Amino acid sequence: MLLCLSSESNVLTASGTTKIDQQFLNTRQLITTVMNLLFYKFSHSSIIFQLTFLHDGPNVFANLFSLPRTGIRQDEGRSDKSPIILDGHSSVDFDCLLDHLFRRIQADTDELSPANTESVPFLISLLQMGAIFDIGVAKSHAIHHLKTHPDLELTMKLQLCHRFRIITWLSPTFKALVSQPIENLDPSSLGQLPTRILHALIQVKHRITTHRLTLAAVAPPAIGGFSCLTPVTCALEWESAWKEGPAEMLHHPDIFYAGRDILAKLVSADLSPICLECVEMSVFNVKDSGCLLMEEGFVEEMLGELTTWLINQ
Q: How far is residue 131's CA from residue 117's CA, in Å, rounded to a whole number?
């Protein structure tokens, strides 16, 4: 249905139909007319539409309709038979934008539109259309609700992060993806990631895995205390304790233990019969060397490269 401004009065009329159950859809003239209005109401029978636009609306509309209509689509948007075509997007996407902007209400039931405005597909459509028309309120709403949405997969979140340059999503989402075992990641969803991000993920996962296997195989050196009377025994016991504790955690088949968690358990562990001074010196050496925290450095280093790449896209 086409909505246009009547030439005889300042009321909105429905072209080609007077049925109240018609949906108001994509229309150039509607947008053109109301862009400079601060507030406008359209009332028809039992249905009330409230159209609200700020005076300093999206800049994308400034010259959107300045070019002359030519070719086979010169009547686009002027009738129901010639709807506006948004290449790459369906009417469903535009419906989501209208649902958000115009807050469609069924007056007879006083209920919100049946569309699930909190679903991931709805919010993604809203984000896409908000980006096309540079509607900040739509983009910010979608980004805010998608940020912590429980149904939004990490791989899709990284796709949106790349497509819409949502820099603040990059670090937490990439870290969460890195922390997951590679076998738990869906190949089809990974294949949808931008090549640069997928390569970075594979590279940092490989680097972390290699480092963890090395730590599991080769224990950090035992540091003997100045007053230790059995340095050889303490060194052997330290290596044995490392193999049975941190090494097992580093290559656990079912549970991923972050290096920081392993370090915390090592600090609080009972490592007798190693003498107390040797334990303190050896654990301090592990903390000071940062060997159990290097994986965080690998991720931060990669994130620095990805952030620079994303900003410069």
A: 18
